[in-house]
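Worked example

This section walks through a single chain of length 408. The input is the sequence exactly as stored; nothing has been trimmed or padded.
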Amino acid sequence: MLLYNFCVAVYARLIALASLWNPKAKLWTTGRKAIFERMARAISPSDRVVWIHVASLGEFEQGRPVMEQIRKQYPEFKILLTFFSPSGYEVRKNYDGADYIFYMPIDTPRNVRRFLDIAHPEIAVFVKYEFWLNYLLNLKARGVKTYVISSIFRRNSIFFRRYGFLWRRALRAFDRIFVQNDESRELLHEIGFDNVIVAGDTRFDRVAAIADAVKRIDAIETFKGDSPLFIAGSTWKPDEDILLPLIDANPQIKFVIAPHEMDEARINRIIDEVHGGAVRYTQCDARTLAGSRVLILDTVGILASVYRYASWAYIGGGFGVGIHNTLEAATFALPIAFGPNYDKFKEARDMVAIGAATKVESAEELKRWFAPLRDDNNLRARVSSAAKEYAVKNQGATSLIMKVAFND
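Given that input, the structure is written out below as tokens.
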């Protein structure tokens, strides 16, 4: 633990140093200032608290179905939501499904004691990959019911190495470990953990809820008209490089491109290079929508609702560290393509295996994937059905987690 605590302290100092020039590091640092005073003013000693901790925005989406069910089934509890990363906190700091939202204080023994004294949770839920040693060991010492949900373990993880004894000790803080697949359960069983439940991934429940609450968007309906629609979600420059030839080769199709980040240079490049006209969502009107073949979603919060209008989807990120959310497209029964870096995403591997999704590595491969799905309605129907069935059959993780966690 001495080495771990030293590394945590060094990490915090390095982030503080980086905050002098890095905006994200500055948010990370300033967001934690006076945090215990702010927590103490907000949380009453008489509150019954469930603490949900997530790393960032993706894990928030996995934890969200559980928070919503706690609110619905156990309104006597207050929900404390913490984030590690500014990219999650700054987007969801006003989320109305939690009573209290803070950054997680850095994992030093003193911080952990102060945090848990103020928060006094009855239940703690960590989402996916959050294994903070001081927090977990202190929760166990206090007898707090503690769970990790939607987790995945791989053989090359530190838990399964000879020097991973400290991390295995931390795992013993969990009353239950809810994993996504059988492989994770078997790996944990090999090192002596029998408190493992294969519940699946709560994101399937989240995207089902999104589909049920989908909104009508007048601008998309005007833009689409009677044309079929192709949507490219969460794209980066390498994704756009292979999409532009596809757009030019299919003048009868309307395209929506939703960049992962609002990079002005890339947005302007799309507008300049696409044939047939492109318009930004924030600058459109009925005339420009009707006269354009490409609509650029330079806004946030509506991508999921746009999927309902599409017939095909491309998901970005696969030429970088990894693809973004494929499940939203799958729940709307869309054939899906993405770049080559998808191996660490179980749902992507599963959908490739059943023919609902395809990996592409070039503009030519993207065209070869798209052409038969454009021209053969029966083929598109089969692929669409496979995607939808996969999304539906994997729902239910949230219900199982709630049943176990609140009846242990």
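What to look for: The first strand starts at residue 49 and ends at 54.
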